[in-house]
Structures are given as structure tokens and as C-alpha cells.
Amino acid sequence: MSTPENKPHKAGFVNIIGNPNVGKSTLMNAFVGERLSIITSKAQTTRHRILGIVNGDDFQVVLSDTPGIIKPAYKMQENMMDFVKSALEDADVLVYMVELGEKELKDEAFFKKITNADIPVLLLLNKIDKGNEEILAENLKIWQEKVPNAEIFAISALENFGVSQVFDKILELLPESPPFYPKDALTDKPERFFVNEIIREKILMHYKKEIPYSVEIDTEEFHEDEKIIRMRSIIMVERDSQKGIIIGHKGAALKRVGVEARKDLEAFFGKQVHLELYVKVNKDWRSNDKQLKRFGYNQR
Predict the structure, then answer these.
(1) What tens digit of pLDDT does each residue of 189-208 get?
(2) 226-275: per-residue pLDDT in tens?
(3) What's the domain range around 200?
(4) Can you tell me the distance from the alpha carbon of 190 to that of 232, in angstroms, rounded to the nearest whole number?
């Protein structure tokens, strides 16, 4: 396959990994030009491996945003780390993100895989807008010594500084290949996945302590007409007490989630949205293999 200019077509998987809260989702969205990954200030915002696809006449970049690397405490987190492992296995280019001031990866085994990788590794030192030149120089030296096999870029994903240079480097490193997905594809995830994620983002923003991490969303109905999409989504919690907190006094807390989610959904889909939200108790779903598989975690 070639363009009219007779350039060879390039395509490959570019997988983004790093500790929680380093800005992986912000970078992914900047590359794709769409809001595919939800972003909050809380750890473990990303639970799944989300693909974002960037197409050009002579290239297709398949970007993969993975959960932040953590030491798992329960089965759902174990499955989250399986997504990271799979990202290491099928990458053509590995993007390892750290933030200014960070000096180590939380999982030593993953770190060894990065330093011993036989594919190109780009180390992105993110959030450089948070420091000064002296701190930046110190951090660059630390990471050059820790990951000598990586080419290092200093960026601010939030401010879109240095992002285009990284993308140009990715295009340079991609192997020659036909596209893996249709040229008009933006992601591999179905529409209901993004409904679930947008609702979960609002819960991460407005609830504290264990509540956001005990929640999963299941969109049971999704009916699209010419002018409106009608959705019915269930917010799953693990305990009865959590159900009351999600709903709030006279339903006020749940209503706020619904209103904010609906606005984002209308922007995402480009049409009017009618969203119904309900809360159900699904005891210990985070440690139940059957439930984890239902929600797309257990891929073993």
C-alpha cells in the first residue's frame, strides 16, 4: 500500500505506560485529538487498555493508554496490571512516561523489562511546567542513567508542549505495514464503553475515599435516533452504605452526576442525550472472577 507520492505505509502499536497520575491519558487525548481517556487527579482513573487510532495518508498509529503501574491489592487490580503486561508484549514503540520529580517505577519487574526492551523506547519527562531549568536538568540526568536505552523528551502534555515532536519521532520509528484498523476508526471500544467511562469520571470527581474505586458502570440500554440518544446506566457499588452515599440526600448527589455526565455525553456524541441513572449493590464485584469478566477485566 502506498500514497500517490509512493511513500511506504507505516503502522504500529505505540503503548504508553507509567505510574499513576503521570499524564498518560492527557497525552493520549492530545495525540488523538479527541477525549477518549477520562482524566481526573485521582490514581487508578484508567482501568482498561484503551486504544486511540491516528490515521494519515501514509501511516496509522495505534496508541494504547494503560492503567498506571501499581502493586495489586485485589483481583480487579491484578487484571488491570494484565492490561499493562499485554501492552509490553505487543508494542512496536514503547512510551514510558514519568513526571518531573519522579525517580523510580513502582514495579521493579516492569522497570527491568523497559530497560531491556528490544524495541524503541521513548521516555517522556512530563509536567515540566511544574519546575525550573535546574530541576529539569537534574531529572534528565537521573533518567538518562536509569534508562540508557531510551530517547528522552521533556514535555508538558497538559500545555501541549513538546507533544508534536514526540509524535514525529513515533512516525519515524513505525515499521512499514498496512493499517491494522479501518482508516476512519478512532478507537476499538464500543460506544457504551465511553458512556460508562464518562459517568465514572464524574463519580471520581465528586466522591471521596473508597467510593470511586468500588464503583463500576453498566450501560444496559443505548438507543440512538436521528436527534437523540436514550441511555439507561446502572452504577454498581459493593455495599448498601455506598448506595446511599452515591444517591445522596433526596437524590441530589446522583442528580449532579447525571447532569454533568449528560453534558459531556452530548459533546462526545454531538447530539441530545437522555440519561437515566440507577444504583445497585453488586457485592464484592472487584474480587469476583465472573463479575470482572462481565465488566471486561478478566481476559485470562
Answers:
(1) 788 888 988 898 899 888 88
(2) 899 999 999 999 999 999 999 999 999 999 999 999 999 998 888 999 99
(3) 191-294
(4) 16
State the Cα–Cα distance between residues 156 and 160, nearest whole angstrom.
6
Domain CATH number, residue 273: 3.30.300.20
The DSSP letter of residue 157 is T
Structural domain count, the chain: 2
Weakest mean pLDDT among 161-175, 179-193, 212-226, 261-275? 179-193
CATH number at residue 37: 3.40.50.300
| Contacting residues for 175 by C-beta, under 8 A, at least 6 apart | 10, 11, 12, 92
By three-state DSSP, how is residue 194 classified?
A: helix
Predicted TM-score (pTM) of this structure = 0.68
Q: Is residue 248 part of a domain?
A: yes
183 part of a folded domain: no
Are 206 and 162 within one domain?
no
CA dist., res. 231 & res. 262, Å (int): 10
